[in-house]
Fold Integrase catalytic domain-containing protein.
Amino acid sequence: MKEDVAKYVAHCLTCQQVKIEHQRASGMLQPLDIPVWKWDDISMDFVTGLPKTFKKNDAIWVVVDRLTKSAHFLAIQQGFSVSRLADIFTQNIIRLHGTPSSIVSDRDPRFTSHFWKGLQKAYGTKLRFSTAFHPQTDGQSERTIQTLEDMLRACALEWSGNWDEAPICWNEVGEKVIEGPELVRITNEKVAIAREKLKEAQTRQKSYADQHRRVLEFKVGEHVFLKVSPCRGVRRFGIKGKLSPRFIGPFEILERVGEVSYRLALPPQLSHVHSVFHVSLLRGYNYHPLHVVSYPLHTIQEDLSYEEEPEAIIDRQERVMRRKSIPFVKVLWKNHTEREATWETEEMIRSQYPTLFEN
């Protein structure tokens, strides 16, 4: 009887699409390759939202060498065009360090534009973009930005004036001149040491991360479910409501991309979604001839989320605080049971969904 029940539950379509897996995350850590030479592999990002200076600058372009961790901080205007940014990149990076082999960055519209991609293709530079699933790919520049912001805050408190004129770097007193073969020898030794230390740190980081992950593999031709995240428009204290993991599909696996990613055969309704997914977003599908799969795929956003809509208000109450009482309503969301209804402030629900109070 136990075996029959387990088999029945495993092939239940509702259970496969709704239940959450209480297991370790799938897919082992895949670190980036260690750079071979300084300024051969770089990462970059923007610091925006800064106050405007006398030169009209309101952003910083941070470019970091992944081997030596040295960086360039370029004061720019947030409204600069991609062609203007390309000129700045050529003058400040390529002129000093040569053309990089690869660039790690997030999916900023300026980095994903056709002009930037065409320019880097002409240079022979490979673009490596982070994803919404794995933003840690761009962690090097993000960590450098944290240090930069701390130094800028300290300078803004200590000195008056514009942030693009703040003395955030201090050089050693005096000059040390090394030329000829001695410079080449010392440089090669330092680069070898840096690569060895990076390898040790990367191996240690991978061992720590893999302790909380598990190996999960699928074969070409198998069918899998794809995880999506329902996102409610209601915000609590500036933070969106909780996410309830769901699965849509099943979809056929067309090919394996790399070690932990797969390309799926998506329907036309999901043509705006990239077809390659990390293995942690997939769940194996147990086929049953009575399964009838239906789902409003047109509501899925590009980041695999969709906005949940409230269905009805099933209860009301007032909660007394120190000096005032706040009205709350119990909201039943679509595709949820009454047990999963949530209490929200009436003011918040009324501002987000005014039509809900018409009936």
Observations:
- The longest strand covers residues 246-257.
- The chain has three domains: 2-14+217-306, 41-207, 310-357.
- Confidence is low (pLDDT under 50) at residues 168-174, 234-245.
- The two ends are 49 Å apart (CA to CA).
